[in-house]
Structures are given as C-alpha cells and as structure tokens.
Amino acid sequence: MARRDPAVANDAGRARLELEFEQPYLLGPLFGDYDRHLITIEQRLGVHIAARGNRVQIEGDPDSAARAREVLVGLYNRLDQGHDVDAEAVEAVLGMAVQPNLDGIVNEEVASPPRVMIRTRKKTIVPRSTTQTAYMEALSREDMIFALGPAGTGKTYLAVAYAAAMLERGTIDRTATQPSLRSGEMVGDSMPGVSSTAASTASAGMS
C-alpha cells in the first residue's frame, strides 16, 4: 500500500507531492532498470521525481504532479498484486492518465492493473470501463461474439484494433469486413461474392 502525504504548493504555483511505499522490495521493479520507468513518467508528464528510500517526491504543476502520483500508485498496486510492470504497462497507465477527460480513471478498478490490453505497433489500448474490460476479454477468449450497446462505446473500434493486433502478431493472415449500410439499402447488394440477381431475390424474400 502507498501512503499519500498532503500536497505542498510553492510561490511559483508548482506542487510538491510525497508518496511513502510500505513494501520497499517492490520499488526496484516499480522504478525500472536505471529508473527508466520514472524517467518515462517525468518526460510524459513534465514533472520531476526524486526517490529516497521508500519515499518518492514529485514536483510539477498541480495537475501533472497529481497524475504522476496516481500513475505510480497504480503501478505499485499492480506489483503488490503479483503482476509485472514493464514499459508497456507504464505506457498503458500513462495513456489513461494524460487524457484530459479521464480525471479519476486511474484507480484501482481500471488501472491496478488493466487485466487485458490490445497492443499494436502504434499504440496500446486499455479498457476505459468495466464493460469494455469484459468486451476485450471476450474478444481475446471467444471465436465469435455479438456486442450490443449505444453508439460511441467502442464496439467497432476495439474489435478492429484487436483484429489489427492479431494481424501484426501473425495469428491471422486476413480479416473479413462488411461495408456500412445506409437505411433503406438492400443487405444482399453489399454481401461479397453474391450476384446482383441473387442479392435482389434474397432481399425481396426478407421483406
């Protein structure tokens, strides 16, 4: 468990936050070889991090310092639960922390740790909610799933991202897609490999 000390602000408007960790043996993997995880957090969030013993001091503007603190707490909780922390895990938690509309999402429910991630060459995608977590786990576990939900909740985006990751890993060598249809279009006309006559007949039979 990590103990958060109250923030201290100086005259320049910068905040200084302190964390105290109860399990010193976890600090090596938390900080990374040659402190590379701390350096990554410093560079991404524009803060300065100093470690002494089992205490860490973070200095920067108040918002960035708070985000850096929550990233460290989330990664520490991950280690405390027996999970590994590597460069990808650091980037995943940072990716959530730097989103301006995700204040408070780096918490025990989502970031300690994300149970599933989609990794591609360009980015690492982590779930933003418990529903997305269940959806991403189903994508990795099942051959076929059906997802229902409101628009904008990530159903198509996550499925396409998972397919892209599988292509990059060589797990599959092709994907199948269906064009988007406007209201009123005949479904059969857009089915690959179906002649227009057969498609019209199929569509008429469904009406």
Secondary-structure topology with pairs:
Elements lengths: L1 E8 L5 E7 L5 H5 L4 H10 L2 E5 L2 E6 L1 H19 L6 H11 L10 H4 L6 E2 L4 E2 L4 H12 L13 H15 L26 H11 L1
Antiparallel strand pairs: 1-2, 2-4, 3-4, 5-6
Shape: elongated
State mean pLDDT (0 to 100 scale): 75
Estimate the strand proportion. Answer: 5-15%
Query: How many domains comprise the coordinates?
Result: 2
What radius of gyration results from the CA coordinates? 23 Å
Mind telling me which CATH architecture of the largest domain this is?
A: 2-Layer Sandwich
Low-confidence stretches: 99-112, 194-207
Biggest sheet layout: 4 strands, antiparallel
CATH class of the largest domain: Alpha Beta
Quaternary structure annotation: single chain
* CATH fold call of the largest domain: Ribosomal Protein S8, Chain: A, domain 1
The strands making up the biggest β-sheet line up spatially as 1-2-4-3
Determine the N-to-C terminus distance: 62 Å
H and E order: EEHHEEHHHEEHHH
- Number of distinct helices: 8
Query: What structural class should be given to the helix and strand makeup?
Result: alpha+beta
Helix content: 40-55%
Under CATH, the homologous superfamily of the largest domain reads K Homology domain, type 1
Write a compact overview of the structure shown:
By secondary structure, this protein is α+β, with helices and mostly antiparallel strands. The chain has eight helices and six strands; from the N terminus they run E-E-H-H-E-E-H-H-H-E-E-H-H-H.
Give the key terms.
single chain; 207 residues; 2 domains; 42% helix
Task: Give your account of this protein's structure.
A hairpin with a 5-residue loop joins β1 and β2. The chain has two domains: 1-114, K Homology domain, type 1 (Ribosomal Protein S8, Chain: A, domain 1), CATH 3.30.1370.10; 115-179, no CATH class. It is elongated, with a radius of gyration of 23 Å. Strands 1-2-4-3 form a four-stranded antiparallel β-sheet. A two-stranded antiparallel sheet has the order 5-6. α3 crosses α4 (87-97). It is α+β, with helices and mostly antiparallel strands and 207 residues long. It has eight helices and six strands. It starts with a strand and ends with a helix. The longest helix is centred in the middle third of the chain and has 19 residues, at 62-80.
